[in-house]
Amino acid sequence: MRLNPLYIILLVTKSELNRKALAALVEMTPLTWGIDENQIDKFLQKESAEITVDVDILIGR
Fold first, then answer.
1. What is d(CA 2, CA 15) in angstroms, rounded to the nearest whole number?
2. Residue ranges with strand state E in 1-61
3. Which residues contact 5 (CB under 8 A, 6 or more apart)?
4. Buried b vs exposed e over 1-26: b needs ≥16 C-beta within 10 Å?
5. Which of 2, 43, 50, 58 has the greatest number of CB atoms lying within 10 Å of its CB?
6. Cα angle value 7/14/42 (rounded, 5°)
7. What is the rounded radius of gyration, in angstroms, for the C-alpha atoms of the chain?
8. What is the mean predicted confidence (pLDDT) over 2-15?
């Protein structure tokens, strides 16, 4: 079954993450799988970091 999108929502946003949010990001993302623990620890020492989220949402029926 092929969906024909009624709407396409393009969302690009930047967010500043504090230390607690950085730790959550590291825990949930597969981008840190296979990375040396020292690199992860170094990243988590940052006070904050900015991330960009780029999402395409297709709404159809």
1. 34
2. 5-18, 48-60
3. 58, 59, 60
4. eeeeeeeeeeeeeeeeeeeeebeebe
5. 43
6. 135
7. 16
8. 80
